[in-house]
Amino acid sequence: MPQDSYELPSIYSSSGKTYVPAHEQHVRSPSQQDMIPIIHKDMPYNPVQSMRDYEEEEEQEEGYPVSTNNNTSQDQDRWLAWLLLGASFSMLFFTLVPVVANLPDVVPSWFSGDALWRLFDPLFTLPLNLFIMTRASSIMNGKARYWGNWSEQTVGWLFWSLGAALFVQGHGLHTASAMFKHPVQDFNLAHPDIVDQYPVLQQIYSYMRDLWEHIIAHYMYAFGGMVMSWAQLFAFRNQVHGPLTIGTKIVFALGSLVYGLLLAGIAIEFPDGLYVGLVYSIVIGLICICLMVFKPNGLSKGGGILTMGRRMVLQFYLGACVVGLIIVIIWIGIYGFQNRLAAGVAT
User: Is the CA virtual torsion 66, 68, 72, 75 positive or negative?
Assistant: First the structure.
């Protein structure tokens, strides 16, 4: 090649275009192209400000997009409905069985059958509640900056993890207290004369049974379960579903009914639980209504409140609160504010 005909490429050309090295010449996805601002030759480029502008535009969007594939959307809604039903049934099943059935103790009687039964509760309840969170658009495609430098996914997962930790800690304390009280109980029943001489033995038993098992542990794992449900309300607060198929509507309604029975059952079982259940059902129900009414996300009828599952998770908990409130009011009308043991029901 003649020497005069060879010319090294310059980073500038007469047309004002910028030379891009070959290793940087790749095809960007549509989402990446949207994030790249248009750079004029006389305008300085500030990448930080450009990213902020993009995030501000993203935050102005109402709700979260649903799948454009109708079959995929219906599949996602169906799985969510089954997960809501499964999580509710799991919690009710593991809570109700030791109450209505007297499970046999493992010899010696220190290994309470009722307490051992509850060991399996978190193994089923926690994964089901976790899978519910993974169905939320805000968890999978949330805002990059939601609370300071924290993304929406981070806030949602931390919220849910707090509830899960409280649930497991309270559940463990409840199971341990229910087990460890039995040796003391057996000794006190076998040696009443020694208990009269040393009343601290009865105090130790009451400390484990009345304080840790029936108050601290009960309310700790119940509060953990409530926090997990609040995290789900947060994650699904803007999400629109459906229209649901008939089968999905039935599963969704059945799950809401089961969770309402769980709320009422816990309120009736716990000491002073009826006061808590009454207030909780009203407050959470009103929060669900406000989340739909004040942010309808393009839905009529009060943000989908009168539809069948268009705001599935919010309506799920609203329906459960209504069911729980009705049962609690009926119980109070019959037995007053006495819990199940004090009322002498199914003892």
Answer: positive
